[in-house]
Design a protein that fits this description.
The chain is α/β, with parallel strands linked by helices. It is built from 7 helices and 10 strands. The radius of gyration is 18 Å and the shape is globular.
């Protein structure tokens, strides 16, 4: 019998779930026996209808949730029993993009992007340089002093992407980043994340929009009622 989490020689695995189960409130499992491996430099779509477990899977990798069964590995470390401080250390190697942006309305675009770096206590000059670079990458250098609430939905999502990449992550988790956007803007956000991937970033992109997966050729995982039902390759 093949071990679903057996290591392969196809690349360095930086994120892995092995037979993971997760339930909430004593009900049916939100995820049931899910196994996947994400290799360094890969772009992978995670598809499935609302309620299929996509956000739960990403939050397990982010360390917001812990599995009820099975194991989660990040960068070669089993994180099931990691304390908050240990998870905070690993999160510095990751970035997270949310569907609802989660921007601070009382801070400028630049201040929103800089927030996580301030928490880390980086020097002011380094923070400013990193913020400028991140905003340039997402095409928002001219909006640095603007209030996020004055921006369009697509621009707000670009700010959240800049915030996610400003720390130089190795792995980017995108939780329905186009879910609140129109089709044209969704394609622009996908194109931006694809460019970042081409620069070396590993991306796990959760979406219920199968049309997006046809625009670029990447591996596709599909969740159905908490199970990883299919695995397709371009």
């Amino acid at each position: 019998m093949v071990n679903p989490c057996e290591r392969t020689s196809e690349g360095v695995i930086i994120a892995e779930l092995c037979q993971v189960t997760k339930s909430f409130g004593g009900g049916l499992p939100c995820l049931h026996g899910v196994s996947l491996q994400l290799r360094r430099g890969e772009f992978c779509f995670l598809t499935g209808a609302s309620g299929s477990g996509k956000s739960t899977l990403l939050k397990l990798l982010w360390g917001q949730f812990r599995p009820d069964g099975g194991t989660v590995h990040l960068f070669g470390e089993e994180v099931n029993l990691h304390q908050d401080r240990q998870m905070a250390r690993l999160r510095r190697r990751m970035g997270m993009i949310f569907q609802d942006f989660k921007l601070l309305g009382d801070r400028s675009v630049a201040e929103n992007v800089a927030f996580a770096l301030l928490v880390r206590g980086l020097p002011k000059a380094e923070i400013q340089q990193r913020v400028r670079t991140a905003l340039k990458l997402v095409g928002l250098s001219h909006k640095a002093d603007a209030n996020p609430q004055a921006l369009s939905g697509g621009e707000q999502q670009r700010v959240s992407i800049a915030r996610a990449i400003v720390g130089g992550p190795e792995l980017l988790l995108a939780d329905e980043p186009t879910g609140n956007l129109d089709p044209q803007t969704s394609q622009q956000i996908l194109a931006l994340l694809h460019r970042l991937h081409q620069q070396g970033l590993t991306v796990l992109f959760a979406t219920h929009d199968l049309a997006l997966t046809r625009l670029v050729s990447h591996r596709i995982l599909h969740l159905h009622h908490g199970k990883l039902k299919s695995l397709s390759h371009p």
